[in-house]
Task: inverse folding
């Protein structure tokens, strides 16, 4: 990957996803949408409701990736510790954020339970990114973006602010083959070596799939992606060009 | 969690899951099954096809958790680099494993493409765990277990050797509430403080769900779990005991 290209890590916080009680659908959504927007997702992590563990991951990811997206653990109960983890990971104190407090007071009205204000305790220097169509703004601390765990709310918020992540899209392509991997492995490696700036993937399909093997090509330079696809096609008898590789159950 | 209780990290390798082109179903399966078997899953990571990145994660997880389960990236093509990453992470060389070579030669027969033998290059000291119902044994390197990325094959292999992970099961329970989180947050925190050896979780449900809020309790000591549930019920008017918390879309 060329320097300066945007990368991302996606962190999902919650004991309930690690126990499998709740199915994590946020990772897949964010991985897919960020890729569509031209951001290379390089890491996805499911983390427990544990401040030091969240802090360690955020502290490692923030300097390593362009964007860090965190989802889950932002409510008012004792097991909502994501913001404390982000604060510690970035070496900032957690403190009452007047603008967030105003938003929460306005949402809950005069009968608000005091515990709701726990959601207004943010890492120092946090910004609130408001957008059309969302009631609560998105919390941003440097390059760390914090989303709720609710898939419905997370998606609404991400889509409302997705412009912050938009980049030059990837160019992708795919070939479908009726072949086994061992037979074509050396040839694939040769083409990968000739086109180091594109990523060539090889994916055997399950026995009930309509195709046996899918070869994918992804890169930023359309001519190089097309060149790699042409080189692959020339050396793989019976290959069927399957058009865009892009997200979807291939 | 008491000392000596089994923990696990689940690592899934593949650029295709990070791009969202392929839906990772292996993390959920392993998280759920390990939890059912009494193992506390503490970490899940999606990793790219990148040897140093895989090595860093494996090197950090192996000493930190009882079991490390890795899935994906074990085929014969250039993008299958999981075993190289595991080897480097554990500080072992990758070398031809005679027993693995024999299994692969017997599977592919005399017309085998030489590239298939790439799958017989394992971290030094790797063991092959054979079991009834699986054609290829599972690769084990110390406490790191390596599974294929194919969900079908991964599940068959995991189930064939699951006895290696069986432990005293968790005891769980749940309450269903028609309440908001801010109102009950202080009370939940009090009960959590009284029962520190159980984990109390609070999960607001999506608007279309039949219940507004689910409170879960999980622990190893059935009496303490029952005690925490009773304390919660006593202080939460309208709570409905929902039986076992166990895996499922709550």
Result:
């Amino acid at each position: 990957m060329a320097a300066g290209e945007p990368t991302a890590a996606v962190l999902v916080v919650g004991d309930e996803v690690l126990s499998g009680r709740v199915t994590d659908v946020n990772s897949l959504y964010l991985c897919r949408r960020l890729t569509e927007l031209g951001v290379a997702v390089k890491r996805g992590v499911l983390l427990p409701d544990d401040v030091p563990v969240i802090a360690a991951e955020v502290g490692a990811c923030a300097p390593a990736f362009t964007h860090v997206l965190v989802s889950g653990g932002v409510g008012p109960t004792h097991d909502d510790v994501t913001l404390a983890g982000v604060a510690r990971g970035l070496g900032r104190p957690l403190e009452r954020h007047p603008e967030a407090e105003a938003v929460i007071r306005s949402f809950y009205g005069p009968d608000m339970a005091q515990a709701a204000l726990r959601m207004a305790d943010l890492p120092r220097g946090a910004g609130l990114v408001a957008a059309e169509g969302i009631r609560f703004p998105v919390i941003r601390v440097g390059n760390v973006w914090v989303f709720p765990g609710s898939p419905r709310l997370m998606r609404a918020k991400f889509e409302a602010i997705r412009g912050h992540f938009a980049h030059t899209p990837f160019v992708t392509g795919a070939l479908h083959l009726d072949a086994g991997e061992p037979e074509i492995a050396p040839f694939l490696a040769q083409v990968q070596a000739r086109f180091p700036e594109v990523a060539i993937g090889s994916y055997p399909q399950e026995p009930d799939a309509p195709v046996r093997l899918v070869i994918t090509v992804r890169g930023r330079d359309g001519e190089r992606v097309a060149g790699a696809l042409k080189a692959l096609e020339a050396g793989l008898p019976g290959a069927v060009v399957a058009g865009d590789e892009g997200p979807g159950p291939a």
The first strand of chain A starts at residue 7 and ends at 13. Chain A touches chain B through 70 residues (CB under 8 Å). Residues 76 and 116 of chain A are 5 Å apart (CA to CA).
